[in-house]
Each structure stands twice: as structure tokens, then as C-alpha cells.
Predict the 3D structure of the following.
Amino acid sequence: MLEQLGVTEASVKAPIVSSMETEEIGLTEDSVPVFMDKNALTADHIVVVNRIKSHTKFKAPIESGLMKMMAIGMGKLKGAELYHKAAVQHTFFKIITDAACLVLTKTPVICAVGILENAYGQTAKIKALETADIESKEKDLLLLSKKMMAKLPFNEIDLLIIDEMGKDISGVGIDPNITGRNRDLLGVFPHPAQVKRLFVRDLTDRSKGNATGIGLADITTQKLVDKIDYAATYKNCITGISLEKAAVPMNFGNDREAIEVALGCIGPIPAPKSKIVRIKNTLRLDSAEVSEAYAAMFQQRADLEIISGPDAIVFDGENNLL
């Protein structure tokens, strides 16, 4: 995975050591064992690095970031499986913070580096934190990250068409923080986006067949289903106790058929009046295609610009969207 991102021993001029071996370093106050990467434990010093962002499963003062990296990241597969199960009883926020605090106490963590991205997926801020400040400062950085997060152009959507999903786009393929779609054992979090039907068209090549999150869609294509590596998808969803995110929805041979079915299942709304939004993926939201049903709303939105159109939806010879 690192090599795919351009990170190699040659590029960083240092050894890259990776293993699933862990050691138990103690118990949380709820008697949950905490595991630590065995290689990291042998290091003189540990610097924790991660992107700080909204989590796809829960909302709390600390979500996905440095504390999570110390708990689930450094706990490897064994820790991840255990913490996800324990979260059902104790909440993710408590499990992550309790495990991370034990790591800070028992291991040679000397500092952390938090990375924040803007709405365009670009690095917007890099912040170094002293060990004693990691927990408190991460809360502030998460709030800043949420302010910079991209959003869909409109909240009321009859049909959301997403061209591609994948692990290289979001941990669950289709980011619930964008779509508002979140099926989870831990419950759902409130979100302003109200999407009646979600159609995802394809799986990215870089996802390597891992279709975790496909269960968040209502409709997909046979082309996407044919790309699914069920072993990888199931392993990911079982580890995260998110079986529902591996559920394969109704699928069709081409986009036209999928869109017709979706628009026929939103209620008594004629297709020309349907509120349709089409995006490339949940990371690329700087531009989108929207239906004419939104025309009047543009007058109230100084933050949106009409680039072109309106134009007819165009399909190729196989009835797939161009």
C-alpha cells in the first residue's frame, strides 16, 4: 500500500518495518486489553503521524486522528478487532481515548504530527504536538477540519449519482460525512443531507476489489459487482463489525436502467422535476452536475457558480453515462 502511494525505502531514505505482531501493554479501566505494535515497542522514540478528520462511524470530541492511530493503528489487526467489539459496549470515543492514553503512558511517544486537509483534498495545515497536548489539541484540530470539509451542493436530493467508490476515497468507500448515509450497529449520526436514492456506478482500480461501503448504496452496476473481492471486503467489514457495509444492493447491466429504477422509486415526482446530483466521488466535490429542478435555488446561493448548461443527460452506445 505504501509503495502504491510512492512511499518506499528509497524515497524516504530509511527502512520501512511493517508487521502485524503486537504485545499487550496493559488494561483500560474497563479491563479492555491494549495492544501495541511490537516493532514500535523496540524503538527509542515514537512519533505519531495521522490525518485528523471526521470518523465515518461516530461523532465525538475525538474521532479519526492521532489518538485513533495510537489505539487502532498501533494495535494492528488484533487491537482493531478487539476495540471495535468493545466499542459496542463502551463507545468508540471512550475506547480510543482510554487505549491511546495507556499507549502514551507505557510507550516512548515523544510527539505527534497532525495533518489537516481542505475541501479540495489538499494539505491545509500541519501541526506538531507535544505528548502532553495530543489529546486536548486534537479536539481543536478536529473542529477546524470539520469547518474545512467539503459538502454536497444541496441537501435535499432525490437521486445522488456517484461515479466511483473505493478505499482510496474513504475508509467506507462512500464517505457518510458527505452523503449522510450511515448504516451501523452503533447507530446513525445526524446529517443535513437527505438522499432518497444513492446510485454508485463503479469501484476504483486502486481499491483492489475492496468494496467496503457498497451497502450504503441503494443501486449499483453489474460492472462494479464483478470487481468485488469478497474476501477483502468481508475481512474489512468483519474487523470493523460493519457487516451491513458489505451488503451488495440491487444491480443492473447499465446506468440508464439503474437511473430509471431509482427515479421510479422516489415517490410521485416526475423525472423532469427530480432533484438529481452527480459527483465523481465523495472526495471530489469542487464540481458537480445537478438537474434543472435546482435552478431557482442558485439565485439564493452566492457560493455556487453555474459553469455550463443545462444540457441533456448523454449515454453511450451501451446506455452508460458519458
Q: What stands out?
A: The chain has a mean pLDDT of 94. Residues 45 and 112 are 11 Å apart (CA to CA).
